[in-house]
Write a structure and sequence with these properties.
521 residues; alpha/beta; Rossmann fold; Hect, E3 ligase catalytic domain fold; 4 domains
């Protein structure tokens, strides 16, 4: 070896876990320092890595710093010492590229565990050693992929646990996902809320998650929108697994789902095509009617605080410059007070509600009695899906067109997803049914007294009350008050039921309805 001025030590482990849990880099550095002492050179710098870089040395920050150091001190001759050729590079092409790069900076290499020889035989031996390491790496990678593919095919998750889950060791099954509370309940509420329309947009899901202190967030205390999108698309939450990069199609997993497959499919439909108008990013609990009540010009009222002499005052107002009411504010208490009258009037009379409840319970019991028919129908649909999949598989084999084959494969994937949803419904049909009281208690409580949900202090509950009670936005006239409200289907049904009890449909909201009485001309 030519005389050198100083040594640079390079150490590497394959992961952060090895760096934190083991003593790999420190042990390597100790061996390399001892080797430098043996060579009679001082160590000028030590650079470390805790990632593999998949063979590409430019993907390793420590190796990049080694090259920068050599470039900065071109006038000195260095020897780069590393523990083993596997630590240096495990792909033959990258290994010799790196050796040539170091030689361009007039640097040599050495190791306490390998003897370098500057001869054709020495280079051949060096190549064989590196190639052996590359073969070992590729064999280990293949074995790992084969084992993980086999686990996914059997329904086991192999990727990192998503929020709401944790891995636990199960005898004869290895590591299995289990729900982790309280995160699991929060995730379930967020996903089901988006599926049913309680949250109209991903922004509302994001605000809901940020409102729950138990939900994990970043260092700044935020939940970012990309994370919400990933949650909505994560099939694991429906108890499903897949690995398309290993050609493993979607299938039922071993772990317990937080939501049903049907709910998951509903979420995907909403993400793919059934998009709604984006929710306002500035919903404020101080103004729950903002964005829901419109001015007579059709523009949604906005709201804010106006500074007075001694304190601030809350107002709603129209920001449409072309409106005759532009600049005219409405006191919050006045608007919300009139709205509270509407919400109170929507509450059905006790006799009407009892009759409706009895009708709903009779329908519920009839539905349970028809469960056997449902099970047979679902089984027929499941068998039909199986036949269609088999027919499509036969066509894939026979076709010579890559485009047609891809279309068939996409159709097969959709049918597989439909099969999973049908199978899940079939399982629920076979299970004992909940009694009427347990199943619809929450819905009945809301229909009996919608004002109770509106009186909640949480903005999400107030917005939910608006969407469940009214089919359309309300319109407010400064002179006459709220115009006719269009109620949602459940309350329209209660209106119809009220006729035999109270006469006209208007009985539910009083003799004059919601609009004010028009004085005689």
């Amino acid at each position: 070896m030519k005389p050198v001025h100083a040594a640079i030590i390079y150490c590497r482990v394959s992961s952060q876990k090895q760096e934190l849990d083991g003593d790999g880099n420190r042990s390597q550095e100790h061996l390399c320092r001892a080797h430098a002492t043996k060579l009679g050179v001082s160590v000028e710098a030590v650079y470390t890595d805790s990632k593999s870089g998949y063979g590409d040395y430019m993907e390793r920050p420590g190796m990049v710093r080694v090259l920068e150091h050599l470039k900065k001190h071109r006038g000195k001759r260095y020897v780069v010492i590393f523990d083993d050729l596997k630590r240096f590079a495990r792909r033959t092409r990258f290994y010799w590229e790196l050796r040539d790069r170091l030689a361009s900076f007039n640097a040599s290499v050495d190791s306490p565990n390998f003897r370098f020889e500057d001869s054709p035989e020495g280079r051949h031996h060096e190549t064989i050693t590196v190639a052996g390491g590359e073969l070992e790496r590729e064999q280990l990678r293949r074995q790992a992929i084969q084992k993980m593919t086999a686990r996914v095919e059997r329904g086991y998750a192999v990727t990192s646990a998503p929020v709401g889950y944790e891995y636990r060791s199960v005898k004869r099954s290895g590591r299995v996902l289990f729900p982790k509370e309280p995160e699991a309940s929060i995730v379930r509420e967020a996903l089901e809320g988006y599926a049913c329309g309680r949250f109209e947009s991903q922004a509302e899901v994001q605000r809901f998650l940020e409102s729950r202190p138990e939900f994990p967030r970043d260092r700044k205390g935020r939940v970012h929108n990309p994370r919400v999108t990933e949650m909505l698309k994560r099939e694991m939450y429906a108890g499903l697994v897949s690995a398309p990069y290993w050609n493993v199609s979607l299938r039922q997993g071993v772990h317990e789902g937080l939501i049903s497959v049907e709910t998951f499919n509903t979420i995907q439909d909403r993400l793919a095509g059934k998009k709604r108008a984006p929710a306002r990013a500035d919903f404020n609990p101080d103004f729950p009617l903002r964005g829901f009540v419109a001015c007579t010009c059709g523009t949604m009222l906005t709201a804010g605080w106006t500074k007075g002499r001694e304190r601030h005052y809350p107002y709603y107002f129209c920001y449409n410059r072309g409106c005759a009411h532009y600049g005219r504010s409405i006191k919050r208490d006045a608007l919300e007070g009139k709205f509270a009258v509407i919400m109170s009037s929507v509450q059905p009379p006790a006799g009407v509600f009892r009759a409706a409840r009895q009708m709903f319970e009779d329908a519920w019991n009839a539905r349970i009695a028809a469960s056997d028919t449902d099970a047979k129908a679902l089984q027929t649909t499941l068998s039909s899906a199986d036949r269609q999949i088999q027919q499509l598989l036969d066509r894939v084999v026979d076709t010579e067109s890559a485009a047609v084959a891809k279309a068939y494969e996409e159709r097969i994937e959709r049918l597989q997803a439909e099969k999973l949803a049908i199978a899940e419904k079939l399982q629920h049909v076979d299970k004992p049914k909940l009694n009427f009281e347990s199943a619809v208690r929450t819905a009945m409580n809301f229909l009996e007294n919608p004002m109770k949900l509106w009186s909640s202090e949480r903005i999400e509950q107030k917005r939910l009350a608006l969407r469940l009670t009214f089919a359309q936005h309300l319109e407010f006239d400064r002179e006459t008050g709220f115009r006719t409200a269009h109620l949602s289907l459940p309350f329209k049904a209660l209106e119809a039921i009220s006729e035999p009890f109270l006469g006209p449909i208007q009985a539910m909201v009083g003799a004059t309805g919601i609009e004010p009485v028009t004085p005689p001309v």
